[in-house]
């Protein structure tokens, strides 16, 4: 029912927007491409590859929850006037998928990067004791793996070339620079894990499965792939016992997601709280300090280095 209401609301707003915007839509051949995105990594990669030929902005305000965000009428009007909307899909952004269906009647290119199956690992979404929002059978947090992030960026490059073939060589050149930076980040992750004392870490939100797959670490998560999933009482007791048995000194929380159950587990274990960034959106402080994707990922790497080298 909620999904139906959201879809109807989006459609209503777009009817108004299309009536108001027919004469004001950006001419990409003159002003460059106006592109809106969902999550921050898509915004950042599009901006880096597109350079001065694109004007890119995420629809999410600072610190928003990518799962529960609902757009304003102004946001929907801006989307209807843009040249393209890039989003991940894969069950991550409920609003984005509803909006994309409504935008089919607008002159907006809809780019769902998640149609590329090679980006994802498939997961069992019927974890014992966890209920709540489902991502289907895919783990959507691909941007946290530098190798998968590079593949996603390559698809963004191809979409930009399709939208603006005249700047094909620029997009290729900018992608190659980005690709080298992502490779260097991947190598830094490898080095930290290879030289770590341990390979297990305790985290509130199980968004780091691709680190497990890529680097051989093991996340012990309070919640599942979705931060809104709920562990059972049995799961909570098991987590506390595991934390004590493994002598885990830290609980990792995400900056834009509160988690009361994880706080209880942390206190029962006697672990120190550390913060990690899931990068789905930037916080206001990230913007003020001009922290980009690589800054935030390297901050995460420092946190990972700390928790994998506890006493």
From TrEMBL:
Signal sequence extent: 1-19
Gene3D superfamilies: Nitrogenase molybdenum iron protein domain (3.40.50.1980)
Record PROSITE patterns: PROKAR_LIPOPROTEIN
Pfam families: ZnuA
GO molecular function, one term: metal ion binding
Keyword vocabulary terms for this entry: Signal
Keyword rRNA processing: no
GO BP: cell adhesion; metal ion transport
Record's keyword annotation contains Signal: yes
Protein name: Adhesin
InterPro entries per record: AdhesinB, Bact_metal-bind_prot9, ZnuA-like
